[in-house]
Design goal:
Number of strands: 12
Strand content: 25-35%
Helix content: 25-40%
Low-confidence stretches: 1-14
Order of helices and strands: EEEHEEEEEHEEHEEHH
Distance between the termini: 69 Å
Radius of gyration: 33 Å
Length: about 240
Amino acid sequence: MLYIEATSTIITSPGERYIHPVTGIVYGGTDYGNLVKLAEIGAVQLRILTPVEGLEIVEWVVEDDAENPGGKQYRPVMLRVEQPAAGFDAETWEIVDDPAHPGDKLKRPVSTSPWDAATFNAYKGAKQDAIDRRTAELIGAGFTFGGHLFSLSPQAQQNIVGLMKPVELGWITFPHSMSTTEIASPEYVVADEATFNLLYQTAVGTVKVHMDSGRALKKSIASCLTVGDVDAVEDTR
């Protein structure tokens, strides 16, 4: 048998099917291009459309194929979701025809209610956490001194701070070598105590600038009274 029901057999050409215009039986198989056989069974070509990734499929429908006159297409009806405005939760929903995507459906909120205090505070907290992550990224990028790039990882910060007291007590002799993050120049020679003090101040000052700017942004968010106020606070660092 050249044509069999697609639901009962694995089809070798998954993009091609045939639907009988009277019985509605879906046919497919290796001989899907046999136009003589198609005419014998009165079948027409059925083109299967690809669903939109990430969206829910409401149903599959068989309809005339505009790109293949005389044929049919098997189309997934997709469901898009319209979220309520920031600061509001949906209480009830409705599903309607999607005006932006004819043939699909749209789930939209019918009634909404403002966020409670806990949800609003969580929203502010999430934005503050994002600021903390950005601050960590900026510090993690290190600092430049003497034309070289140095690490500001937690361990590197500890190492630099840990050198200050021995330098003050004269336990460190100069010139003194310190590591950089550069492949071509992995070592920087600190000539004297004055140079080390400048390097130390640059390292500590870089961390302080990033921490202070992040703290100021977080304080601004903490004082916000509306979602719009929170959204207006932008971390442009």
